[in-house]
Amino acid sequence: MADFHQGGRVATLHNLRLNTAEDLNRELNAFATSRKITLILPSLFSELEGDALPNIIDELNKVDFIHRIVIGLDRATEEQYRYARQFFAKLKADHVVLWNDGPRLSAVDARLQALDLSPSEPGKGRNVWFCLGYTIARADSAVIAVHDCDVVTYTAEMLARLVYPVVNPTFPYQMSKGFYPRVADGKLNGRVTRLLVTPMIHALAKVLGPREYLDFLADFRYPLAGEFAMRTSILPDMRIPSDWGLEIGLLSEAWRNLSPRAVCQVEISDRYDHKHQDLSEEDAQNGLSRMSVDICKALYRKLAADGTVFSEEIFRSIKATYYRGALDLIETYFNDARMNGLHVDRHIEEKAVELFANNIIHAGNVFLDNPMETPFIPNWSRVHAADPDIIASMTRAVAEDMEEYK
Fold first, then answer.
1. Is there a contact between 184 and 81 (Cβ–Cβ < 8 Å)?
2. Separation between Cα atoms, residue 406 and residue 403, nearest integer Å
3. Distance between CA atoms of residues 9 and 211, nearest Å
C-alpha cells in the first residue's frame, strides 16, 4: 500500500519503504527521554500458551523507547498468575502484570460495583479500561499504545510506526490508529471490516443521509484494527464500550472529544495475521456473529446520541441497502484477490453477508428493546470524582500482588 492517497478528514501516514526501522527507533529513543511511552497488552491467560506472545516478547526486547509495559491478565488462577509473572519476566522493559481476577483487584472492582461504575461484562474492553486506569494512576507517561497479544506476524517496527505520530512533538496528533492488509495463507481475511463495517457505513449514509460522523469512520482503512496509541492527557475523558464494539467505540470517542485533525491512521505493517474467530452462525453469543451485533449496536448508539431517530422500518431499510452493497463488494474483493494470487471463497463470503444482514436487524431490535442500556464503561474522571482513593487503591493492589506472588 505504498501510496500517498489522503481520504479526507483523517490524516493517513504511509510506509513508503524509504525510512528504516533503525531510523524510527533512533528518533523515538530521543523523543522518549521527555515523552515516556507505556505499552498496554490486554491478554487472556490462554494466549500465554499460544505461538504469538513469545515472539512478541522477543520483538519488544529489541527496542529501548518503552518506559513501561502494563499487561492486563484475564481468566487466570493464582497458579497461572505466578506462571505469567515468570513468562513476562523475559521482558527487559519495566513491566507489571495486573491480575484482574485476583482477590485484590476483585476487591477494587467490588467498590466500583457498589458505586455502579464497574464494567458491565468481562472482555477486552474491561481489561483495557483497568490498564488505562493503572496508567493514569502512575502519572509518568505521555503516550500509551495498545495492541493485541495474538499477532503472529508481530515485529517491533509495528509498535514504532504506531506510536511515532503521537510521540513526535512536532506532530499535532493525539490519537493514531494502525492499518494494514489482512492477508495470510494465500487468503484475503478481515471479513468483519470488509463485509460488515465498510458496506454498513455506506448503507447508513444512504438511508439516514449525510453524517460527518459516518464520513469520519469511512476515512479509516481498517477501523477494527486493535492497534492504537494516544496521548495520556485525553485518557481520563475517554468512555469505551465493554463489549466487542471497542474499536468502533474508541473511534466514536475520538470523534466526540477531538478534532479530526488530531487523529491519524498509520500504516504499521504489510503482513498482518492474528487469531481468527469462527463465523458462529448457530450461536449469536460467540464469534463473528456476536462481534457483528456489538459493532452494529455501537454505531446505532452513537448515531442516536447525535439525534438520529431509529425505528423498525429504518432498520429494515438499512439491512436491504447493506445487503445489496455488500454483495457488490464481494465481487470487487474477489477480483482484487485474484489479481494478487489470493483465494476468496464467494460462497463463504455470501454466507457471512447473510449472517451480518440478519444481525443488523437483531442489533436494531436489541437497541429498541433496551433504551436504558448503558453500553459504555464510565470514564476515569467520573470514577475519580465518585471515589478519589480508588486509583491509589488499584496501584497498591497491583504492587502488593507483584510483591506477594513472585
1. no
2. 6
3. 13
Q: What's the rounded Cα separation, in Å, for the pair 178 and 268?
A: 6
Task: Show Cβ contacts of residue 332 under 8 Å, excluding neighbours closer than 6 positions.
Answer: none
Query: Can you tell me the distance from the alpha carbon of 255 to that of 301, in angstroms, rounded to the nearest whole number?
Result: 14
pLDDT digits (tens, 9 = 90+) for 55-111: 999 999 999 999 999 999 999 999 999 999 999 999 999 999 999 999 999 999 999
- Residue 208: CB partners within 8 Å, gap ≥ 6? 214, 303, 308, 314
Considering just the CA atoms, what is the radius of gyration of the chain in Å? 21
The pTM for the full model equals: 0.94
Sequence-ordered list of residues with C-beta below 8 angstroms from that of 387, at least 6 positions apart, any chain: 111, 112, 115
pLDDT 10s digits, 157-199: 999 999 999 999 999 999 999 999 888 888 889 999 999 999 9
Alpha carbon of residue 60 to chain centroid: 19
Q: Are 100 and 132 in contact (CB under 8 A)?
A: no
Compute the distance between CA of residue 18 and CA of residue 83 in angstroms, rounded to an integer: 42
DSSP 338-385: HHTT-B--HHHHHHHHHHHHHHHHHHHHHHHH-TT---BPPPHHHHHH
d(CA 378, CA 45): 26
